[in-house]
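Lab meeting, action items carried over

1. Structure of the six-component assembly. Owner: GW. Status: complete.
Input record:
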Amino acid sequence: MKLLIINPNISQSVTDLIEAEARRVAAADTLIEMATARSGVAYIETRFEALLGAHAAATLAGERVGHYDAVLIAAFGDPGLPALKEALEVPVVGMTEASLMTAAQLGQRISIIAISRRITAWYRECVDQCGLLGRLATIRHLDAALRDPGSVQADHAARLLELSRLAVEQDGADVLILAGAPLAGLARTLAGQLPVPVVDGVSSGVCQAQVLVRLNAGKALQGSFARPPKKPHAGLADGLAALLQRDA
Amino acid sequence: MKLLIINPNISQSVTDLIEAEARRVAAADTLIEMATARSGVAYIETRFEALLGAHAAATLAGERVGHYDAVLIAAFGDPGLPALKEALEVPVVGMTEASLMTAAQLGQRISIIAISRRITAWYRECVDQCGLLGRLATIRHLDAALRDPGSVQADHAARLLELSRLAVEQDGADVLILAGAPLAGLARTLAGQLPVPVVDGVSSGVCQAQVLVRLNAGKALQGSFARPPKKPHAGLADGLAALLQRDA
Amino acid sequence: MKLLIINPNISQSVTDLIEAEARRVAAADTLIEMATARSGVAYIETRFEALLGAHAAATLAGERVGHYDAVLIAAFGDPGLPALKEALEVPVVGMTEASLMTAAQLGQRISIIAISRRITAWYRECVDQCGLLGRLATIRHLDAALRDPGSVQADHAARLLELSRLAVEQDGADVLILAGAPLAGLARTLAGQLPVPVVDGVSSGVCQAQVLVRLNAGKALQGSFARPPKKPHAGLADGLAALLQRDA
Amino acid sequence: MKLLIINPNISQSVTDLIEAEARRVAAADTLIEMATARSGVAYIETRFEALLGAHAAATLAGERVGHYDAVLIAAFGDPGLPALKEALEVPVVGMTEASLMTAAQLGQRISIIAISRRITAWYRECVDQCGLLGRLATIRHLDAALRDPGSVQADHAARLLELSRLAVEQDGADVLILAGAPLAGLARTLAGQLPVPVVDGVSSGVCQAQVLVRLNAGKALQGSFARPPKKPHAGLADGLAALLQRDA
Amino acid sequence: MKLLIINPNISQSVTDLIEAEARRVAAADTLIEMATARSGVAYIETRFEALLGAHAAATLAGERVGHYDAVLIAAFGDPGLPALKEALEVPVVGMTEASLMTAAQLGQRISIIAISRRITAWYRECVDQCGLLGRLATIRHLDAALRDPGSVQADHAARLLELSRLAVEQDGADVLILAGAPLAGLARTLAGQLPVPVVDGVSSGVCQAQVLVRLNAGKALQGSFARPPKKPHAGLADGLAALLQRDA
Amino acid sequence: MKLLIINPNISQSVTDLIEAEARRVAAADTLIEMATARSGVAYIETRFEALLGAHAAATLAGERVGHYDAVLIAAFGDPGLPALKEALEVPVVGMTEASLMTAAQLGQRISIIAISRRITAWYRECVDQCGLLGRLATIRHLDAALRDPGSVQADHAARLLELSRLAVEQDGADVLILAGAPLAGLARTLAGQLPVPVVDGVSSGVCQAQVLVRLNAGKALQGSFARPPKKPHAGLADGLAALLQRDA
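Predicted assembly:
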């Protein structure tokens, strides 16, 4: 299978982190292609930035339509995920959704470790939109200014470990999600140092995309995830227009 | 006060409908300025189309920043609403949110009358994101193909009235929302023909925007609705970049 | 429009506070008439006291029926609100409901600042009955004995400000409600000192009543907010009997 | 134990029905005293009528304070229940709450059979306030005008049986509640004719009151069900004033 | 009535505690028969141990079928409760369910005091399955190793009292449940020392079983609590097979 | 990896169905070992039968402990799933949980197609325990007596297809789950005949087990999914005792 992984941030350093972790976990016959947003911000932490990232991700997905078997939106918060599920014939997976659905099979109550305070309210809304707010224990977060999204793991390793432990001991988490592409791979690094299972977003996303392609469950032809109906449109970038002009 | 009303659809006929109803209900000292999306689709019914509308609406809001006291996103589903609440210093109101918060003061259980089947699943998610799913009785909808979003009211008047009555008699609705900009003004037309209060989205939006400006409650400087933090960005239209470059 | 504002407490000093703030915010063509409960307690903090206040408020509303275009129940907790929505032909607004529906448009998660510990459990139930418990961050409260409901603001200004800041910084509130008629006007006083929007109950109530009158959405003739059906009754004060004896 | 049973309706015929069923189910050492509201309506079906019934019930409970070991509010909807739990030292039980908590031990999903359409929206709110909305299957109801609350059972026996069966077969109810004092005793009459357990409100109320007295769990001295704090009051009937003037 | 009380733990010392409290509270005409699990663990704290306890309890109930009018599963967490409600013709009561439904009539928000940290996550799930999670304030717990489930009360009296007070003062509990058979009778011991009503699991269970027998509401013949349909089975202990082989 | 698939029913014909579908979907390097319950019933449809199946499944898992890398509980309703997650060091997957978490990535609202009416109430509770009740559209079911669980697909093909279509057209399902081991493989058979994605329980279970093994997230050493603490036990079958006696 061919998997298109879209980084909705403009940071190549984060794309590199994602790619490394994705290649490590992917099955031998999964071909990975990376794409980095051409427009947007260095690192999405807010609803406004997610709007920008969603638009950039949809544009990339549209430009390459027909050349992949599944798409992974590789930013926590899953910018553009439900929109692309409608517009594409192939499975579309998000890091938040995939890691939540994975974690939910490893324990009952889930805590998320995030890289900034600002991001947590929006993450909570994402969990709610997945329908799993009742299983969220807490979202804990770093509280320092970040030098570079590409070096968060190295810069804040001890604090990330401490936040994880607090989530287990004080919040009753049965399982943890290390949230955000900048933390890709950290679950592997921390293996053995935490008292509960730890889920990585990129790895979960790649594996869940492989599941959906393997199951071949079919594209919705009716209902709210069918392709949008054809209708007049204007002013769209080619990638976006491509997603509206094809026959259903 | 100056109120910028943004139609996130590209249909001028719908903008005209919105403007007529907005001017009818607005206070004498409310100056209304209309803006129509330059990119997107004729009528938003899906999550993908809402992504396009959100981007177009944010671009328009950014281009005119500083020239209005409040913004009304004049499409049901409120494309871009939470993002713009972060990015702008002034109140931003959405037709769905405003009509739900208005209707919630007129009765306990709310039904929504929509103009297509396709749109209903997404509307339900919007009500959920407003936190009011527990007060939603039903969403009923037209089930015929629409000739033109500008003439839905005239083309389907009898059926819209019937759907409204069924929502009251069979679903237990205490109050109705006629949803979608193409139904702007219909609540006024149906006055006296329905057994429960009926709320219009455009009118609710204009009135609630006036309330928020009058109350002058202040812009968030902290928390998840503060302005997005300054950071590197790229590839954005001028209007969008304008919203990121200013000092908080 | 003529707006009847009912203080369900017997305290004239609180009525004066309410009136001052109401006149400050009301539109030029809104005529305000105040009424103070003739029976009940000095300041409602409990469910039992709310039962007394509801009865007193309904009696006042019934005595003056036909002489106003809308009613504002001007105590947090909205004593008698759903009952009066049934019994009256005109819109009835409550301070809690109006401030919640206003605040819900200014941020996602709402904290309430209350004037006593005792009152908080009941306030939480009120938020739940509005259907917005999912959007409540916390209710924080003063914990000192109150000299006089009319001087709470002056006596406890610094602590009220601190509670507000804690709600933002520790509880993740995006918007605050200063709850209870004794805090009427405090939001205005604190303008500029708090990092998120602050909503005042009286001002919200007056503005939302104006919205409902302007929208002229109609009185329920069917469903659970229609007038109560005519049936035998006995032993009621004139104001209450007046609400049962009229033709629907 | 002495059990005061208050009918918040003014109908002596309903009081008689309640008394008959209560005496049939009560333990040998339970002394029952009946009280009928002196003010209010013949049969409570609306939130406004419940406000009247709550006031009348509280007045009766206050007049006889000290002369009973528990109170049963014998109208579905439990007018005044939370208020009286605060104000009295002894357990206060409501027909809705008692029958819900009883039914919840007999099956997972509960349907309620009600005597009018009008009453159902308010009943649903009562179930919600008990926190058991998630266990409510449906509320089904008679839809004919009622001659007399005292003869509903005889007049509509066949339809009540049919509604009960529909709740089981179509709505998935595991257990039924026959709601409203006018249906007191019907569960006994229908014994053997229904395919699931059926719960009677009056019987549940008497039995649960006996449980609470037997357990002797104590009166709240702190928290939201402690006695209301002493404070100035005015204009109250003697029974109500009595509840405010005692030492905690 | 004959009440079979099953201790799903293998500890005779806990059975003795349960029996003493049960006999203290039972009505004069309630005949109590005790049964202790022959297989399982000394004290159930986990979902796996509850699986063992459920099987042991069902076996005991099946062996004695026909010789009791009601069953009380006398371990918090109610192992096997919904299964036995299906399989038996008589009411089956659980300590968790009975104490929750009792406590819910004494206050709005409930806190549970538990005897180990490990047990709390599972207890929370039990409250959720009862549908009352919305009324749970907190679960507080001892955090020391337990010498013997039979002496927990004596060993940790002061800490249990402190936890109870914290639940009221910091968590807003209106009513407390002392959870787990090892705490049977402690509510009586603490009478007068706590500021809110305290509910005992064994006492609640006995009293609620008496209520259900007295109400004689009938066994489900349809729906999800009817007897399981007859079908091939194999390899079951006699007690379990007995529950499957009888005619419905 | 070695995957132990446990059929908690005693029907070898169903085990064969499961095995065929599991081998079809499994990765080349997944070694599948089947186990059929030695005790219990032919087909689990009730909570009581699930208690039997949970015990049988746990016994089998315990007997073979150390000889597999993951376990799949291959009956809808997931008998014993949370208990085995505690007791085993390796991932344990259930058909319900795995298909829900898979389906949740393919659409927002999920409908389940079940093979009997009796089973639906219990399935609904399973969805609730997974925390996804908010995403459940409906559970539709066959309503005829079943000849043989092994031939349900062949006997009722047309009706199963019709139920699936109704779930999409009338209930708003975006994705379907064909529930119960007897329907294993039907999703593949129906491919192309349904307008939305269809998820198979066995296939989802195998694929999700592969994901969890691949991610290697670790076993809980603390919290509610750690191994049960060592303590006295008695009377357990060897397989069950084996799960309690090992060092954590």
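2. GW to write a short summary for the group page. Key points so far: The two ends of chain A are 22 Å apart (CA to CA). The mean pLDDT of chain A is 95.
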